[in-house]
Specification:
The chain is built from 12 helices and 15 strands. It is α/β, with parallel strands linked by helices and about 400 residues long. β11 and β12 form a beta hairpin. The structure holds pyridoxal-5'-phosphate (PLP). Pyridoxal-5'-phosphate binds next to α4.
Length: about 400
């Protein structure tokens, strides 16, 4: 008799984003003529930069010739891409990295989910609330969340509240946590941490032998000067932080799939007997066993983003989405909403009016004016009473959606 991993049964039966999609699809079937505009889902709308396309086309051609054909590549990624990451993403910020501290992957969702495999089941996990739901779901599926308590929260997870009361900046938890997920600029609140705010977390991790999983999927959206782009800009972070970044929202790679995870050699975890183990080795082991590397063609595409043309194209793309976020922020503020984020992030986080629940507001917006938002409740308990809009749609659709909202409100 084959036994299943029963931890999977602990998850709600629906995935939050599928639930939204189902409601939107049903609305479209009932109203086939409705021009539905989605500012809800996190996918991008603009095409891949020309430099990346050109590089990928030529990489495909290489595969057609036995002399240049590539089969399995290095599991943790090609050095041509790692060189660019070291030289352009980290060196200008004063961070030095070795090639074997960088792991190229097929998207940061895989890595933020899979990274839990290398840690013990009895860690206390700190998760900010609201946040990208994958951290909690992966902990549940991996049997690391403990048991469900009376208030419907997991015993091994410490939820760190972020609300307008603390400007969505998480305070250090009173309970001791061992693994901490931080996502900055944050999805969904769009808030970024200053150096001083992030330093508190690095210091906490160093003092408590904790490890921070730093999800920097939106680092390229940072516009303000006092905001660190990488957690390694904070002294000591190489001893306690794993950083995960993605080309998805930076360069429209949501469909192509490419990201990277940095695991510095200095990070140490412990066995139950107190033996210190280098975490980099465990992640290397995990990757070389479970993964055969991101495709050569896609890595060539990512490499081209670091060429002068590529960098310019990425800059323009990010600026395009940030301008959309600005339009959303300004229009909703004019309409009287309380609006957060959207300055160092494509995400705009908005309080629902009149204490409406986030799912009710989602339905009103969809059914009344055919605009899709993301209900805040899907990002955690503290997300209730908020909704998220993103700057990822086209300029035309963003402007049209804002006109509809301002007339409607
Ligand atoms: N991390 C955060 C915070 C995200 O919002 C997303 C996607 O929306 C991801 C990771 C996953 O991105 P990727 O496309 O690299 O898997």
């Amino acid at each position: 008799m084959a036994l299943i991993n029963e931890n999977y049964l602990k998850l709600p039966e629906y995935y939050f984003f599928n639930e939204i999609q189902q409601k939107v699809n049903a609305h479209k079937i009932i109203n086939p003529k409705a021009n539905v505009i989605s500012l809800g889902l996190g996918d991008v709308s603009q095409p891949i930069p020309a430099s990346a396309l050109k590089a990928m086309k030529s990489a495909v051609e290489e595969l057609s010739d036995p002399k240049t054909f590539k089969g399995y590549g290095p599991e943790t990624g090609y050095n041509f891409l790692k060189n660019c990451i070291i030289k352009y993403d980290y060196a200008p910020r004063g961070v030095t990295l070795n090639h074997d501290e960088i792991f190229i992957s097929d998207g940061s969702k895989s890595d933020v989910g899979n990274i839990g495999h290398i840690f013990g089941r009895d860690n206390i996990i700190g998760i900010t609330d609201p946040v990208y739901p994958v951290y909690e779901n992966a902990a549940i599926m991996g049997g690391r969340s403990g048991y469900l308590t009376d208030n419907n929260l997991w015993s091994n997870i410490v939820y760190i509240p972020c609300s307008s009361k603390n400007n969505f900046v998480p305070e250090l938890p009173k309970e001791k946590v061992d693994i901490i997920y931080l996502c900055y600029p944050n999805n969904p609140t769009g808030i970024a941490l200053t150096k001083a705010e992030l330093k508190k977390w690095v210091d906490y991790a160093l003092e408590n032998h904790a490890i921070i999983i730093y999800d920097g999927a939106y680092f390229s959206y940072i516009t303000e000067k006092n905001i660190p782009h990488s957690i390694y800009e904070i002294k000591g972070a190489k001893k306690c932080a794993i950083e995960i970044r993605s080309y998805s929202k930076t360069a429209g790679f949501t469909g192509l799939r490419c990201s990277y995870t940095v695991v510095p050699h200095e990070i140490i975890g412990f066995t139950l007997y107190g033996n210190a183990i280098e975490v980099n080795k465990l992640w290397w082991q995990r990757n070389t066993t479970y993964y055969n590397g991101t495709s050569y063609v896609i890595q060539k595409g990512a490499e081209a983003l670091y060429s002068p043309e590529g960098m310019q194209e990425v800059k323009e793309m990010v600026s395009y989405y940030l301008t959309n976020a600005k339009i959303i922020r300004e229009e909703l503020t004019k309409c009287g909403f309380s609006v957060y984020g959207g300055v160092n992030s494509p995400h705009v986080w908005v309080k629902t009016p009149h204490h409406t629940t986030s799912w009710k507001f989602f339905q009103e917006l969809l059914y009344d004016i055919n605009v899709v938002c993301t209900p805040g409740a899907g990002f955690g308990l503290m997300g209730e009473g908020y909704f998220r809009l993103t700057g990822f749609n086209s300029r035309e659709n963003t402007t049209e959606a804002m006109q509809r909202i301002s007339k409607w409100i």
